[in-house]
């Protein structure tokens, strides 16, 4: 893995959790590709009022977009370059933020 996605200062993370996270609980966290990260210590786009706050915004991260209409979880239509960008963001997050669990899959959708 390229070192460019590693934090400049070492980060001590808890072991990843495998809890199932409901969309209601997600209102306290943020997610990428269905994996919920605790970004509560950060502000900007992930904090209150930010484009990616309280949701899985995988599509927007892949497109490098802060537009509210791009901040959604369906990344199935991203092109190869955008998927690489999304994967890079996922690597960035998993090296900096604790993993709280996985989003609950809604069986009816």
Summarize the structure.
This protein is of the alpha+beta class and 109 residues long. The protein has helices at residues 23-26, 58-62, 80-94, and strands at residues 19-21, 30-32, 35-38, 98-103. It has a 4-stranded mixed β-sheet with strand order 1-4-3-2.
Description:
Belongs to the cytochrome b5 family. MAPR subfamily. This is Cytochrome b5 heme-binding domain-containing protein. It comes from Drechslerella dactyloides. The protein has a four-stranded mixed β-sheet. The protein starts with 18 loop residues before the first strand and ends in a 6-residue tail after the last strand. The chain has 109 residues and is of the alpha+beta class. The chain contains three helices and four strands; from the N terminus they run E-H-E-E-H-H-E. It has a domain at 30-103: Cytochrome b5-like heme/steroid binding domain (Flavocytochrome B2, Chain A, domain 1), CATH 3.10.120. The model has no long low-confidence stretch (mean pLDDT 81). Strand 2 and strand 3 (35-38) form a beta hairpin.
């Amino acid at each position: 893995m390229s070192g460019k996605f590693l934090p400049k200062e070492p980060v001590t993370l808890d072991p990843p959790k495998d809890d199932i996270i409901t969309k209601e609980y997600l209102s306290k966290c943020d997610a990428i590709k269905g994996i919920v990260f605790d970004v509560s210590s950060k502000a900007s786009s992930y904090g209150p009022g930010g484009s990616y706050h309280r949701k899985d915004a995988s599509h927007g991260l892949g497109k490098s977009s802060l537009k509210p209409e791009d901040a959604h979880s369906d990344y199935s239509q991203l092109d190869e370059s955008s998927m690489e960008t999304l994967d890079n963001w996922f690597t960035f997050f998993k090296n900096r933020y604790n993993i709280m669990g996985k989003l609950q899959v809604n069986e009816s959708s």
